Amino acid sequence: MKEGPIKSSIRPLINYFNNLIPLNDKEQDSVFTYFVPRLYRKRQYILQEGDTCAQFNFIVSGCLRMYKIDEKGNTHVIYFATENWWMIDLGSFYSKKPSELNIEAMEDTMVLQISYDNLTTLYMQAPKFNRIFRVLIENSYVALQKRLLQNISSTAEERYLAFIETYPHLINRLPQLQIASFLGITPEFLSRLRSKLSKQNP
Amino acid sequence: MKEGPIKSSIRPLINYFNNLIPLNDKEQDSVFTYFVPRLYRKRQYILQEGDTCAQFNFIVSGCLRMYKIDEKGNTHVIYFATENWWMIDLGSFYSKKPSELNIEAMEDTMVLQISYDNLTTLYMQAPKFNRIFRVLIENSYVALQKRLLQNISSTAEERYLAFIETYPHLINRLPQLQIASFLGITPEFLSRLRSKLSKQNP
DNA sequence: ACTAGATCAATACTAATTCTTGATATTATT
DNA sequence: AATAATATCAAGAATTAGTATTGATCTAGT
């Protein structure tokens, strides 16, 4: 018997959880119950500045970016997320206050979403998820801290090289414009960096 | 790279209402209170099949289309709406049942939205809006009936000519693909119609 | 004064979308 | 049965949107 398209889109999440901490059948059922799949199209907002972030998102396929628009109207990419990553404005989600951030689909993207209330229910029904989400957020925290450190301590060139190391799969998947915005430099400068580097290592 | 913030321009809606039936200050205040601006980007869904239509939408700028996907996977445009028009799946909105229709942005589109509950409150606070919304829906009804009649009684060529008459501002604003889908013909056939017509009136 | 980087404007390149055309089929009408 | 209206499929052509590069010039911090 083959699973319907919706059920099968939950598989990657079950696998992800099992990989962190194995789930029993009842726990897997809870995942099926509380996470709902949703497709976003390229350029579509998952979260828009001013709205409250109401969902925890797990990415099944595609790519999202979280960014902030500053007073001058410039955008700064906070992070990209692809398959098997999470995307959420935690601050807004827990405080239930309007977000200052935007989340947008870079490609058509399938996510699995759980609402605040359902997440709370999930924690009560299956306390193991407290552990799972703790671990998962710790992972994100570490990545974030690494990125901060990287950012305050390196030149643009170093940051770009580190980006290539850390996210080789993103280099050809994202426009350089976006990568520049992630690195905190202008697209022009990134272009120059790249041409300089390719002259050095032909 | 700039992606400006959402400007809250409720003015066009106030003007629209005043044009139908003049509002007093208190009534204008209610409009400011209950309608909230929201920006949709090109290709973004305002309503997706299966979701419940939770908002009455007034279009400040841009263009939306409502369409249905049939069993064969073909899409049929029910209508387009631009500046100063309304867009909603009334059936889903009032029944609170999942919609079979889709609403999608053809361009970046700014809308003013009011939810079911807020609309109810508005009606109670300012009964004049009952009259306003009655008139407004009557207008839409008339347009719809005209379109139906057009559709069952004319050839594709006649429908196309009528479209040009009725929506001259849409002809160059929308891809022919979409116009074909509105007229209920294939884009290829529309293309042939057009070239035939332009040979007749050079 | 030098380096890392920004800004602005022009141009080049690439990919996505849209439009047209030809060949051939289907369906409804007379 | 013949004809007009319209669909389908496939291939190219044309257009537009999005992205990348380059040159010239500017600025802030060592």
Explain what this protein looks like in three dimensions.
Two copies of one chain form a homodimer. Chain A has a four-stranded antiparallel beta sheet. Chain A has a domain at 5-126: Jelly Rolls (Sandwich). In chain A, strand 4 (63-69) and strand 5 (75-82) form a beta hairpin. The termini of chain A are far apart. Chain A contains nine helices and eight strands. In chain A, helix 8 packs across helix 9 (187-200). Chain A has 202 residues and is α+β, with helices and mostly antiparallel strands. The interface between A and B is medium-sized, with 16 and 13 residues. The structure holds a DNA duplex (30 and 30 nucleotides). Chains A, B: Residues 19-124 form the Cyclic nucleotide-binding domain. Chains A, B: It comes from Niabella drilacis (strain DSM 25811 / CCM 8410 / CCUG 62505 / LMG 26954 / E90). Chains A, B: Keywords: Kinase, Transferase. Chains A, B: GO terms for molecular function: DNA-binding transcription factor activity; kinase activity. Chains A, B: One of its GO terms (cellular component) is cytosol.
Offer a few descriptive terms.
homodimer; 202 residues; alpha+beta; Jelly Rolls; 4-stranded antiparallel β-sheet; 9 helices; 8 strands; 22% strand; globular; disordered N terminus; DNA-binding; transferase (chains A, B); Env_Response_Regulators (chains A, B); DNA-binding transcription factor activity (chains A, B)
